[in-house]
Amino acid sequence: MPAAYETERYGMELQIQNLRKSYGTHTVLDIGSLTVHDGGITAVVGPNGAGKSTLLNILAGLMKSDDGEVYYGGSREIPFQKMTMVFQEPCLISSTVEKNIAYPLKLRKYSGKEIHSRVGTLAAELGLTHLLGRRTEGLSLGEVQKTALARALSFEPELLFLDEPCASIDPHATLEIEEMLLKRKREKGTTILIITHDLAQAGRLADQVVLLKEGKVVEACGAEKFFSHPDKEETRKFTGGELLV
Amino acid sequence: MPAAYETERYGMELQIQNLRKSYGTHTVLDIGSLTVHDGGITAVVGPNGAGKSTLLNILAGLMKSDDGEVYYGGSREIPFQKMTMVFQEPCLISSTVEKNIAYPLKLRKYSGKEIHSRVGTLAAELGLTHLLGRRTEGLSLGEVQKTALARALSFEPELLFLDEPCASIDPHATLEIEEMLLKRKREKGTTILIITHDLAQAGRLADQVVLLKEGKVVEACGAEKFFSHPDKEETRKFTGGELLV
Amino acid sequence: MKIIMEGVAEAFRLIFSLDEEVFEVVGLSLRVSLLSLLIAGVLGIPAGIFIAGHRFRGKRLLMRLIYTLMGMPPVLCGLLVYIALMRRGPLGSLRLNYTVTAMIIVQTLLIFPIITGLTVSAARDRQGKIRRLARTLGADRRQTMQLLLFEMRFGLITAVITGFSRGISEVGAVMIVGGNIDGKTRTMTTYISQLKGMGEFERAVAVGIILLIISFTVNTILCYLQKDPGEELRGGHAGGI
Amino acid sequence: MKIIMEGVAEAFRLIFSLDEEVFEVVGLSLRVSLLSLLIAGVLGIPAGIFIAGHRFRGKRLLMRLIYTLMGMPPVLCGLLVYIALMRRGPLGSLRLNYTVTAMIIVQTLLIFPIITGLTVSAARDRQGKIRRLARTLGADRRQTMQLLLFEMRFGLITAVITGFSRGISEVGAVMIVGGNIDGKTRTMTTYISQLKGMGEFERAVAVGIILLIISFTVNTILCYLQKDPGEELRGGHAGGI
Amino acid sequence: ETQNQGEVQNQGEAQNQEETEAGSGNGEEIILATTTSTQDSGLLDAILPVFEDETGYSVSVVSVGSGEAMTMGENGEADVLLVHSPAAEEEFVAGGHADEDGRMDVMYNDFVLVGPKDDPAGIAASAPDDAVEAFRKLADTRSTFISRSDESGTHQKELAIWEACGIQPEEDWYVEAGTGMGAVLEMTNEMLGYTLSDRATWLNLGLDEDLMIVCEKDESGILYNQYGVICVNPEKNENINHEGAKAFQKWIVSEETQELIGQYGVEEFGSPLFTPDAQQG
Ligand SMILES: Nc1ncnc2c1ncn2[C@@H]1O[C@H](COP(=O)(O)OP(=O)(O)OP(=O)(O)O)[C@@H](O)[C@H]1O
Ligand SMILES: Nc1ncnc2c1ncn2[C@@H]1O[C@H](COP(=O)(O)OP(=O)(O)OP(=O)(O)O)[C@@H](O)[C@H]1O
Ligand SMILES: [Mg+2]
Ligand SMILES: [Mg+2]
Fold first, then answer.
1. What tens digit of pLDDT does each residue of B38-52 get?
2. Under DSSP, is residue C63 helix (H, G, I), strand (E, B) or coil?
3. How many structural domains compose chain B?
4. Is B60 domain-assigned?
5. How many CB pairs under 8 A join C and D?
6. Residue A180 is part of which domain span?
7. Which residues in chain C have their CB less than 8 angstroms from residue A145's CB?
8. What is the pLDDT of residues E132-144, one digit of tens each?
C-alpha cells in the first residue's frame, strides 16, 4: 500500500510513485510521488517536451513505464472500461461523426434509444449536430477534436484524461467545453486530468495544478496557491508576466 | 487586372476574388474580395469549420477552388518556390530534426556551410538545439510543431502561411515565436498569413485581422479597429467578453 | 493472334454452352483457392497483426523468412508436401496425395506467407494507434480485433487479393500433389498446362480467359468489401487513424 | 522425409562443390528475375503512385483489372506471349521465343501488375500528404518523386519483394517461352520441374533450397534498403507523414 | 502372404470411407502412373471408362515423365505403371519393385524423326527409313536437333540411337530442352529443327504445316516404341491397392481391351495410334 498522501481525502484517487521512463540515457519522466484527487480537475502544465503526454499515456496504460507504480483507489489496476482519454493528436474511426460518438456506448451495450439520446445531447452541446451524418474524412481539425471529446464524454468514465483537448478549438467553444467539464465534475464526480498550454484555462478549470519540467514535478498544489503564491521561484516564472490572466 | 484595392500600397499583395469552394451543396468558402497586405501580418480568426484552413490550402495551391481567382502581385501564379506553409497538423519527413530543417535549403542548393549555420541559428531560437540529431519519431507534438516552423523559416519565403502554428506550443515558446515572426516581417518584409484561435496572439501580431464565419468574411480590417471598434456587431461578439486580453 | 481471337470465341462458347467439363474444372479451382484463402487468411491476418504489433528478438529475421517464403516456388512447395504425404512417408496412411485435400494444404502453405507478409506491411504503421484508441474507448480483445480489421481493411483486402491471385494462378504445386486427374483434381491451371502440352492452344487460351473472368469477379466482390468511400478527401484526412 | 534430408545435404554439396551447371542456372534465374523486377519496378511504381494520386473515371475498374492481372496465371501469360512471338505470329520476325529476352518480357508482364497494385495500396493514404508537403517546401517534380519514394519505402519495398517473389518462383511462364534449354534458358524453377519429372527428387529439393537461400539473400538486401529505424516508437508517431 | 491379404482388406475398408472422394463404383481407387503420351493422345480417356464400369474401380491417372513414373513406382506412390522405356522397366523389375508377374507388353507404336519441310539435312531423300544413318547426317550437317533430355522413354530411345551411331552430341546444334514432348515439338516447329517424337503426340499436335516426318519405320526395329504394364510390388507399403492394380493389368492385356486399343485413332487420324501386342494366354 502506498504511504505518502498529500490529501486528506481517501477514495478513488490516482497515486503515482517513483514513475520513471527513459529513452536510452535520456530520462523523460521521473516522478517521485504525485496524487491526483478523486473527483477533481487536475491541470498539468509545462513546457514542450516536459513529459506531460508521456505521463498521461502511462496512466492510461498505453505505455509502459520503466519503473514505479500507479495506484487507483489503492489497487494497481486502472479499470480500462471506466477510463478514457482524448489524445493530443485526436484520432477518429473512419466512419461518421455519429458512429464515432456512439462507439463507446455500443461497446458497452447501451440500448439504441439511450445511444441516440446521448449522442444527440452531446452533439448539441458541442455544436456538432449538423455534422452527425458526416464522414470523418474532411472534418476540420477543430471538428475532429470536438468529436473526440464528445466520444470520450458519451459514456460516463470515472477517469478522464485529456491531452490538450482545446488546442484547436475556437475560443467560444472552448468556454463551453470547460462548462461541460465542470458540470461533469460537479454532477458525476468524474476525476479529470487535463494537459493544457493555456494557463488561463488551467486557472478557470483546475482544483489542482501540476507543473512538470524536464520530466520532474516542479510544483503540485491547489490552483489558487499555484497561481498566486507558489512555493517555487520556477513556478512563478512559468506563470508570470503577461501570460496569466 | 483586379479592380478593388482596399489598401493604398501596391506591391506583392495577395488578392482574392470571388473564391468559392463547396462540397456537394455545402459551401465552405465564399469570399467576394479580400486583400492580404504585402509585408504585413494578417491574422485569420473564426469558429471551427469556418473555412480558414480551406482558404489557406487554396492560397498555397494545395487545393483547387471551384471558382474565383487569386492574384499575387498582379499575376495569377503564386511562385511556389517563394512560398511556404505550416500545416495545422504539422508533418515531418521521417528523418532527423536537423535534416527536416535543412530540407528546403537543400532543395534550393544552399551550400553546406550556409545550411549548417542557418539550421543552428533557428534551432537555438526555437529551443531545438538538443533535438537536432533526434529522429522525428517520438518527438512531442510541440517539438514537431517547432520543427515544422523552423523548417518553414529556414529559407526566406516571401509568403508564409501558418495554420495555427502555436496550437501545441507552450506559452513562453509562443512568445518567442511571435518575436521571430515580427522580426521577419520587419527585416525581410515577409508577408505572413496566420490562422489562430488565440485572439490575444492575433492582437499581438497582426496588422490586419480577418474574421471568417461559415465561409464568408465577416470583417477584414486593421487590428486596432478590429478589436476596439469593429464595424460589425458579429465581430464585437466574437472578440468580446472575457476572451480579449 | 488468330489463336488468341479464336481462344476468346471459344471461351464464350464454353461459358454459354455450359460445357460440363469446364464447369467441373472451374468449380474445383474455386473450391481449392477459396478454401485455402480462407484458411490462410484466418491464420495469416492475425499472425501478421501480431508480428506488426510486437517487438521481439529475431523479428527482422522472421520478416525476411516470411518474405522468402512468399517466394517459395510452387514446384518446390508441391514437392515437399508430396514427399511428406507419400504413402510410405510419415503421413502416408492418410492417403492424401492426389486428393483435393492435399491441394488445399499446399495452396494454404503458399498463400499463408503472402497474407502474413502483406498484413505486417499494412499493419506496421497503424495498428499501434488503433490499438491504443480501442483501449481508451474500452474495447475488449475481440472488439479491438474488429476495429483493427475494419480500419485496416484496405491493406488487408489487398493482402487477400494478392493471396487469392497467387492461389488461383499457380500450377506447379497443385499439379504435383493433385496430379491433374480428370474429374478429380483437375484445376483450370493444370488443365491449361495440359492443353498447352497437347497443342490445343485455343482451348488453353479459352480456359485462361475464363479464369481471368472468375478472378475479376472475385476481386470485384473483395473490393466491394473495402467499402471505399472514394478518394482521400480535401487537404488530408484530419484525425484519421 | 529422408528425401528432404538428402536434398538438404545435396544442396550444400552443390553449393560448396561449385557445381557449374547449378551456378549457370542460378545465374540465369537471377538475371531474368532481377531484370524483369527492375523494368517492372521502374514502370510500376510511378504508375501506382500516379493512379493513387489522381481521380479519374473508371479508376475503380482499372484497379480491379490490375488486381485481376496480379492473378494472371503464368501459364496463360506464357502462352499468350509465346503466341505473339511465334514464328508465324505478329512479332515472329524477332525470333524471340526460347530466348532470355522472351523470358524477361513474360516475367515483366507478370510482375508489373503486382508492383503497380501494391504501390497503389501503399500510396493510397499517404501520397497526397507527402505531395502537399513537398510542394509547400518548394520541391520540383523530381524532388517530389524522391520524397515520395523515400517516405513510402516500406510499402514500396514490400511491393518489390512481392514482385521478386513472384518472378523467382514461377515456372509456368518461363517454361513455355524459355523451354528450359540447357545452358541457355534453364532457370532454377524449370530445372526443379525437370528434375521432379525425372524422378530426381533429392536434386530437385536441393536446387529448391538453393533458390530459397538466394531469395533470402535478395530479400535481406532489399529490406536493408528500407533502413527500418526499428519499431514505431512510443505512443504514436507525432507529425509523421 | 496371408498377412498381405489382411492388409489389402484393411485398406479396402479405409477406402470405402473415401467413397465420395473417389467418385464412382465401389469407390476403390487405383493410381495409374503413366507417361504424358498415353493421356495426351486421348487413349486413356477413350478406354478407361470401360474399365471403371466393368470393375467398379476408379482410376486416378497421373501422367508424368517416364522417369518420374518409375520413381513413383519405386516409392510405392502408384499402384500400377503404364510406361514405355523397356530397358528401364527391366531394371525396375530386376530391382524388385514389381510384383511377381513383372512387366507385360501392352501395345506399341513407333517413333518418328520429324524435321522441317525443306529438310536441310536431306534425310527424307537419303535415309527415310534408316534412323542411325539419319542421326549421323544430323551430326554431319550440324542441323538443329531438339532433345527431350528428361530421361523420358523418348529420350532413352534417342540416346540409344546416338549410341548406335557412336556419336555423343553435345555441341551448339544439339539443344537439350528438358521438357515434355508437346513442348519439344512446338520448339522444333519454332526453330525449324529436328526431333524424335512418338507418333501419337506428333499426330495430335498437327504441326504438319512446316514440319514433316523425315524418317520412320526403320526395318531394324530401332524406332519401335513398346509400352508395358507393371504392377507395383505390394510389399512396398500397406497403402498399395494391389488387387486393383492386378485387375487393371489383367484388363488391359485382355482381348477385348486390346481390340479397343487397336481401334483408337482410326476415326480421327485414319490409322490406329497404337498397335496392341499383349501375349494372350
Ligand atoms: N522514443 C523516444 N526517444 C527519445 N526521446 C523521446 C522518445 N519519445 C519521446 N521522447 C521525448 O520525451 C519527451 C517528452 O515527450 P512528451 O510527448 O511527453 O512531451 P509533452 O510534455 O507532452 O510535450 P508537448 O507539450 O510538446 O506535447 C520529449 O522531449 C520527447 O522528445
Ligand atoms: N470533403 C468534405 N465534405 C464536406 N465538408 C467538408 C469537406 N472537407 C471539409 N469540409 C468542411 O469544410 C469546413 C471548413 O473546413 P476548414 O478545415 O477550412 O475549417 P477551419 O476553419 O480550418 O476549422 P478549424 O478551426 O477547426 O481548423 C468544415 O466544416 C469541414 O467540415
Ligand atoms: Mg504532449
Ligand atoms: Mg483549420
1. 889 999 999 999 999
2. helix
3. 1
4. yes
5. 209
6. 14-90+157-237
7. 239
8. 888 888 888 888 9
